[in-house]
Amino acid sequence: MRRSFSFFERFSKAFQDYPSLSRIIVVSTISGGGLIAYSEANGTNAVVETGTRKKKVVLLGTGWAGTSFLKNLNNSQYEVQIISPRNYFAFTPLLPSVTCGTVEARSVVEPIRNIGRKKNVDTSYLEAECFKIDPASKKVFCRSKQGVSSGKKEEFSVDYDYLVIATGAQSNTFNIPGVEENCHFLKEVEDAQGIRKKVIDSFEKASLPELSEEERKRILHFVVVGGGPTGVEFAAELHDFVREDLVTLYPKAKDLVRITLLEAADHILTMFDKRITEFAEEKFSRDGIDVKLGSMVTKVNEKDISAKTKGGGVSSIPYGMIVWSTGIGTRPVIKDFMKQIGQGNRRALATDEWLRVEGCDNIYALGDCATINQRKVMEDVSAIFSKADKDNSGTLTLKEFQEAMDDICVRYPQVELYLKSKRMRGIADLLKEAEADDGSKKNVELKIEEFKSALSQVDSEVKFLPATAQVAAQQGTYLAKCFDRMEECEKNPEGPIRMRGEGRHRFRPFRYRHLGSFAPLGGEQTAAELPGDWVSIGHSSQWLWYSVYASKQVSWRTRVLVVSDWMRRFIFGRDSSSI
What is the main EC category here (predicted)? Predict the structure, then answer.
């Protein structure tokens, strides 16, 4: 009897600790008691437990940053309103695979309502696009994606206590004539589906009778602009699709298909290790992909693209389809907001090291739409000196400096990076010129000018984070943890000392942890560049790449669907229908 009671005691405690488990009752129990238990658990959680109005967090965007924030936010004292024109999260690293049917579009998306429904936090979703942010009145103005009456899209406003901007970025056309009208982009699932249809349509069109040989070649000439990871992966996927599937279905097109990659720089994949760049260029050369380096696009017409070479000459290249992948640009709503807050001359929203938009206490920005404006050591060097000089002697001993070292390295990450780049063991190595003749570092005393001189080169290691899914996901996780502990850290701050002002910062600043860079190169081969100067190129790297990303962000549903798509493709080949 006691054993049974203990079981129910533990079972009851589990529901108290994790209220969301009460949903299991509804699924597994068909009695009225089960339904009543579910109702009481939700009602108590939402109203009685806190007794105060929940703070409203408006989340703009359902990309890597926004979804990561939503998944990791666990404090039930918030009410989250998600606003985005797309009602799903897309696993964007696999979009090039969607363009060629290696993976189906539905396999790489996760409904955002499913993600929100699984949280203890109250969440709701509106399928709309934000077109204006008003920080003074704490409102965002939105336009519904769906037409409500007479085909017109409804406009409405939403109040917030905290605003999290994670709208991402759009493709950058650099205002080159004809790009918007004639090129395909690869930022969204719809883009990938459109490219897939265009590829199949091109083969069907080239198969029609009475076309000249020259016209068939033009139709089957696929041009990729941009030698970054997305452009390179799409070119590789397209090559595999053509070689492994389409040439057997369209045998007459075998000798007519051409793939050209245009890159303005001297190499493709310039952000990768030189070994990966060289391997990728050699592999593309073997595969017959024409890589034109130093080619800058100047104009895109309906049937040809103009590119300027390093020598100054301009060549005209006929094409059937162009995929434009040359970087990212700022969305209109972000541009307008930046002008409001005095950041109109920037390319992205400037935030501090805690992802808070500069000049806006309750607005945060993360992902591709923002960049961290890392504070320079030399801007605060006098304040740092004063904080370290505890006895107000006007000089600083190494012992005093070392006592403040932890806070300095946390607040200014470039200090640690500089020490590593110079292979220095500690801050004392920076001050060797000021050591006493007897070598006793405890007796060394530095004046402010000597201190400035020792730190003068540290800011050379200030780094801007790349606009990648990896950075965005880590920022979302970091900000969610800050929100979870905001009330606690108001009372007991855990961040570094405030160099200008009193006390400590509430949180430790955001630190990006690089997990590696990956570039699928076709033929089941992937190049991986991991921390520690480790480079891997081969078949196993693709599984490593997938496991690193997938384990952090996508559900088991998505993982199973993607693996099943890979199995289907291995057994039956890629789907060549244009649907």
Answer: oxidoreductase
